[in-house]
Amino acid sequence: MIALLLALGSSLAYGCADFLGGLGARKAHVLRTVMIAAPASLAVELLLWPFLGASFSNQTLMWGAASGVASALAFALLYKALAIGPMNVLSPVTALVSAMLPVGVGLMQGERLGVTGLVGLPLALVSVVLISAGHGAGAARPSRTALLLAFGAGAAIALQLIFLDQAPSDSGVGPLIVGRAVSSAATLAAAGLMHRHLGAEKPAYAMSAGAGVLDSVANLLFLLAVRSGDLAIVAVITALYPAGTVLLARKVLAERIHRSQLIGLGAAAVAVSLLALT
């Protein structure tokens, strides 16, 4: 139950981070947004170090750095995919892939589900698609390139989660610090190489920093969740993050919640209840 609650908190934080990051990216080039978000996220993890502890063994450095590379790759592939294809098709593809790969790894590692888990897990995966897709998911047809980028982004997100799960359980926030330092360095390097193409618009500093802080909180809650629960269940609950984005868009931007999304939210509530009983 503790792992489930932590995973729900991680999902909510990821959804809020995506919402703020998306708004920030509307005001300036996405790299300008990430250039603020990534260091802000790293700052939060450094502030948590004295309270939660951190060790930096070879295993921690290896898995932390791998998660950082995967995180930077996920950002690049995801934003590129959403820039060239319909978001309401590509977003659920990314979320579904990011959930299914960790589920497969968890089951291969020997994790077992009860009867309620065998029902709740696929129901949660279906709810991810319904919540993400919204209205008119079949109206626009993405290109093969956009679909490949979406699959790649989902795989990169999944790898980030899997690598964090592989880090030593006694390493505290060490893997997060290493991972965020690597992804920040990669982002800043990419921005330096592309500085002529970033435009003159100033980024939304508060929203970008807020996105980074929330992303850091989400990573921390996920790490704590997989240390006290199964990767298969934690990953699929975390993948419900589009629910937070949808609800915030309804509250802040007055965007309509469509029938399929309402069904998805209801299905997610049932799935979480079933997984809590497994």
Q: Would you summarize the structure shown here?
A:
With 278 residues, this protein is mostly helical. 80% of the residues lie in helices and 0% in strands.
What do these coordinates show?
Helix 2 crosses helix 8. The chain is 80% helix and 0% strand. With 278 residues, it is an all-alpha fold. The longest helix has 27 residues.
Task: Give structural attributes.
about 280 residues
SSE topology:
Layout: H1 2-27, H2 30-52, H3 58-84, H4 87-108, H5 115-133, H6 144-166, H7 174-193, H8 205-228, H9 231-238, H10 242-252, H11 259-277
Helix pairs in contact: 1-2, 1-8, 1-9, 1-10, 2-7, 2-8, 3-4, 3-6, 3-7, 4-5, 4-6, 4-9, 5-9, 5-11
Topology pattern, helix = H, strand = E: HHHHHHHHHHH
Structural class: mainly alpha
Residue-averaged pLDDT, rounded? Answer: 81
Helical amount among residues, as a percent range? Answer: over 70%
Overall, the morphology is globular
Query: What can be said about the biggest beta sheet?
Result: none
User: Which percent band covers the strand fraction?
Assistant: under 5%
Q: End-to-end span in angstroms? A: 10 Å
**SS summary, helix count:** 11
Please report the total strand number as a whole number: 0
Uncertain segments are: none
Cα-atom radius of gyration: 18 Å
